[in-house]
Amino acid sequence: MKFDSLKTRSAVAHLIRLAACLLLLAHCAVLRSGKILGRSMRPAPEPEAVASEAVRAEGDGLVVESASLAPDVTGYAGPVPVIVRIEDGRVASVVPVLPNDETPVFFGRLEEAGLWHSWDGLAPEVAATSHVDAVTSATFSSRAAIANARAAFAAAAAAGGDSVSAAPANVSLRSAAALAVLLAAAFVPLFAKSRRWRTVQLWLDFAVLGIWSGTYLSTARLLGWAGAGLPRAPVDLAVALLLLGTALLWPLFGRPAHYCMHVCPYGAAQELASRLPVRKRRVSPSLARVLTALRVALWAALMLSLGLGLGARWLDWELFGAFAWRAAPPLVMAFAVLFVALSAFVPRPYCRFVCPTGTLFKLVEGRRSGRRPEK
After folding, report:
1. Segments forming the whole domain that contains residue 275
2. What's this model's pTM, rounded to 2 decimal places?
3. Both 202 and 112 in a single domain?
4. What digits encode the pLDDT tens for the residues 80-123?
5. Which long-range contacts (CB under 8 A, 24 or more apart) does 273-282 make?
6. 124-145, pLDDT tens digit by residue?
7. Are residues 72 and 151 located together in one domain of the fold?
């Protein structure tokens, strides 16, 4: 009876911490985007006629032309309008309207830098407020292109999907593969303890969830979902629910850190690196406690900056952004590689001693130690 009572108290405490976490995310989402689950918390401005003219239905999606949405935005030599295509409630492509007055070589640099792919797969509401760095050596052109793209995303978000056909959306191979890998990561470890299978799962997490599809949880993504709501496409919704379930609900059923250990693609990259045959370095308990305290203090400072509306730029610097390698800042790429290399000597150092998103999950679980949970 004592055991059952202890489990009940633990579950209630977990749910209380989870509720507090959700309230914190909701508060930060309102400050950042002015929305909760897609509902605006600010007075809505009167829609302009030009916005409705710029958005048109095409097939099962939307096409938005930014020329009339950002007429005063110019690049080095003139306007830099773009065409945005929205499919299944996500950004499918962003392409420049040609011809225009910009120097062609500038657009070549934007293409080489992967600027046009910076928003692929994002919901319009998220894309409209996401930070994308200007391209070095094409600063004027890239800033104008980014401003036009954001205007188009905002118009698509304002349209609310009303022009989209209610017919079932086609499931992309990328989304289907991500869902399959997530299902395996969520449920197979509950029953299988094979090291061979775990190796396969780690590679699938890294290659499919990380490199190919960008399917992972980050603080920016959590805030995006808190503000704009979960994806509406069935497969994308299933993916989101599995990610959230493994991170926030699986611990209720005796699976602490399930997301971090079995799903997270950056965690998988670190564990694969830790299997390299090099001499390992042990972190002493006292040093682990200090590093853990610093991790929690860092998380508290970062969340305080969000909660007080002081700044959200740090969201762009979580190392998960390295999977979007075309648009990731060089320093993010450098630190991502550095922590993976360090993992060959110290198991999962970013997960254990830095990761703000992982810290949030640990606090929800009531787990403060830097010690790795059982696999």
Report:
1. 173-365
2. 0.69
3. no
4. 788 999 888 888 888 887 666 555 545 666 777 788 888 888 88
5. 273/340, 273/341, 273/343, 273/344, 274/343, 274/344, 274/347, 274/348, 276/344, 278/344, 278/345, 279/345, 280/345, 280/346, 280/347, 281/345, 281/346
6. 888 888 777 766 545 556 777 8
7. yes
